[in-house]
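User: Structure please.
Assistant: Input sequence and predicted structure:
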Amino acid sequence: MDNIIEVRNLSKQYKELKAIDDLSFEVHKGEILGLLGPNGSGKSTTINCILSLLNFSKGSIKIFNKEMKPTAYDIKAKLGVVFQDISVFEELTVYENIDYFCGLYIKDKNKRKQYINDAIELVGLEEFKKFRPKQLSGGLLRRLNIACGIAHKPELIFLDEPTVAVDPQSRNNILDGIKKLRDNGATIVYTTHYMEEVEIICDRVIILDKGKVLATGTTDELKELASIEEKVTVEINNLEEKYIEQIRKLEDVHEVKYNGNILLVTYKKGKNNLLELMDYLKRENIKYNKIYSERPTLNDVFLELTGKELRD
């Protein structure tokens, strides 16, 4: 499998803080790689080192099989970067903004015109070409930000929180556009605080914390790392403590939590846990409103590995 990015033994030190600690990983050609980690895990520092926006203490970074340096302009011409902060010109229209950023790489006017229209179609801004940024909603503004970063059809794209604080329609539009970029041959490094997005679009995931790789794999492979095998959620009003203690003693139970009339029972293993819990509730004549079972989620694995929620 071809590697578009190769990071080897990367370390970055800020005085007493080791932001990246002997980090090594690859990004494969044609994949959407989700780079996940709680705040302060080293994600932004890693990306900035890859882009040669930061010097690093030791290690090596290759992009397209070439060493990445601040002066590697041939590599940079093939990159698209969309940071979380919106970076557009308020005095220019949607079309003019995209034209400006695309023009930094594409000098042929006819080719650039086609690229601009492709980018506008990709993010769904056909009806807003003549609008200025201040006339756009937050979601439309994020779409414009993405179009400006990818209009020159880069081979490698970095997307940092591209859907933060957007409406559902814009989020779906952005996610569909990202998948189209991948399907058209781009390789994408994607950071987000929305775990459901990772499940939808990422081909592979790397979980970082304290500058180290804690785990890597597909979402299904990562879920296999969970120490629990099943979660059962029950909506019960005013459940007495004695019943909670009895449930804790049931076979294969890993943990029991009861909060706000929601009982959460996790199991280490077993296939008939839901039925056994229902039988117990029936025997004790405990009334419940809802009950359902689910497998461990990616968020469960993330919490187990890092001890933090994704937004911590």
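The radius of gyration is 24 Å.
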